[in-house]
TrEMBL record:
Compositionally biased intervals (Basic and acidic residues): 87-102
Top-level taxonomic group: Bacteria
Region annotated Disordered, chain positions: 67-102
Protein name: Biopolymer transporter Tol
Length: 102
């Protein structure tokens, strides 16, 4: 599998001709790895809960991880200050195994 193309400005990756917002390049590697691990756990949880009442919570977990990575959210990472970007990736993002259940 080859690496996806990146737009000249570095804001997007291009996969199969479609643009997707790139991960914030300022995220420290250790935190990026942690957030990607959480994202992938939530994606597995979406598959597991598909069609159930828990699916919405699983999708919310995916969204939270993608926001922390800078792949979603407003404003985009390139329009944020360094302090705003750091606050975004430092925010607590839990994985499906870290949820508090009642």
């Amino acid at each position: 599998m080859s690496d996806p193309g990146v737009t000249d400005d570095g804001h997007y990756v291009v996969i199969d001709g479609r643009r997707w917002r790139a991960t914030d390049p300022l995220i420290p590697e250790q935190r990026r790895t942690e957030l990607v691990h959480i994202l992938m756990a939530w994606r597995r949880e979406v598959r597991r809960t598909k069609g159930t009442a828990q699916e919405a919570a699983s999708r919310a977990g995916v969204n939270a991880a993608k926001v922390a990575l800078g792949e979603r959210g407003t404003p985009p990472w390139w329009d944020q200050t360094v302090a705003q970007r750091q606050a975004r990736w430092d925010a607590e993002v839990t994985g499906p195994d870290d949820r508090v259940t009642e």
